[in-house]
Design goal:
This protein is an alpha+beta fold. The chain has helices at 13-23, 61-79, 118-121, 125-135, 157-165, 171-182, 223-226, 228-232, 235-244, 251-270, 276-293; strands at residues 32-37, 41-46, 50-55, 90-92, 102-106, 111-112, 190-192, 201-204, 207-211, 218-220. A five-stranded antiparallel beta sheet has the order 1-2-3-5-4, sandwiched between helices. It has a three-stranded antiparallel beta sheet with strand order 6-8-9, with no helix packed on it.
């Protein structure tokens, strides 16, 4: 059965054109076509260079507001190393046609890392490590916490235990989670991407081109982002990724990162019936965790 949540509000092409006519009339006549739809947001291609990004569920509304605030602060450090981010070029406000905030962001060329061989992704593992070192800087005190991402592992223990009961064959997930719970807790609160799976990384010509979809951007434990290593890279790539962080993170952070990788794998393995590509990421992540524990 499908596991993706249903949309609570869907904007039509006519709705979006009216929204643009009010907010940016110079764009209202550009070609407009639905591009993609995720758990939280719908994306519409606008002309050759732009993308309209709209929440599809009420729970995503504060996330897009966080993204609108955070990206201008994060983007310069990534741009300095040639990695793009979808900084809004228009911050849209609720209208009669759409009840929530929305954004227009640049169209960024590239293909997602989803489905690419881990050996290919590993070629840019040092790039991602450097990108995260630049993202993981102290965040303002008033940045709202995400309900899940970047928090203490114990806050997700009940949900994780329920999933592990259905994944008894994946003993490595149990072991990684238990080790993470026993590790010292994070003593820093930095900006984190919060959703750094293969579908949110764009690759072009064998290099990391962009980090996209900052809907879950928040402040918290950087271990949550480091979990991407087990989702993306082969053993050599994971080694190169950690080496390229240049001891920015202590051993406890890496133990928590592996635990978060186990958590994300468990979500993908139990909630991706309608997304076999993401279910495959969950399975390969579990295999990577097991390989590192053997």
């Amino acid at each position: 059965m499908p596991d993706s949540p249903a949309a609570e509000h869907r904007a039509t092409a006519d709705d979006i054109r009216r929204m643009l006519q009010e907010a940016a009339p110079e764009w209202a006549g550009l070609p407009l076509a639905r591009f993609a739809e995720g758990w939280d947001n719908a994306l519409w291609r606008l002309g050759p260079d732009l993308l309209v990004r709209l929440p599809r569920r009420a729970v995503a509304v504060p996330l897009i507001a966080n993204e609108q605030r955070a990206l201008p602060a994060i983007e310069p450090a990534l741009a300095a190393i040639g990695i793009r981010t979808p900084v809004p070029v228009l911050v849209g406000h609720p209208t009669a046609d759409f009840p929530w905030p929305w954004s227009v962001v640049p169209w960024i060329e590239g293909s997602t890392a989803l489905g690419l061989p881990r050996s290919e992704n590993s070629l840019w593992a040092p790039q991602l490590a450097e990108a995260l070192r630049r993202v993981h800087i102290d965040a303002p005190r008033d940045v709202a916490d995400n309900p899940v991402r970047g928090r203490a592992l114990r806050t997700r223990d009940e949900a994780m235990r329920d999933r592990l009961q259905t994944l008894a064959q994946h003993s490595s997930l149990h072991q990684a989670w238990s080790a993470g719970l026993s590790a010292p807790r994070a003593d820093e609160r930095v900006w984190i991407h919060g959703d750094l799976h293969p579908g949110n990384l764009l690759v072009e010509d064998g290099r990391l081109a962009a980090l996209i979809d900052f809907g879950d951007v928040t402040a918290g434990d950087p271990a949550y982002d480091l979990a991407s290593s087990w989702m993306l890279f082969d053993a050599a790539g994971r080694k190169a990724f950690r080496a390229a962080t240049d001891k920015r993170y202590d051993d406890a952070t890496w133990v928590r990162a592996r635990a978060w990788a186990a958590y994300i794998a468990s979500v993908l393995l139990t909630q991706s019936d309608d997304r076999p590509d993401y279910r495959a990421v969950g399975a390969s992540t579990a295999e990577a965790i097991e390989a590192d524990q053997s």
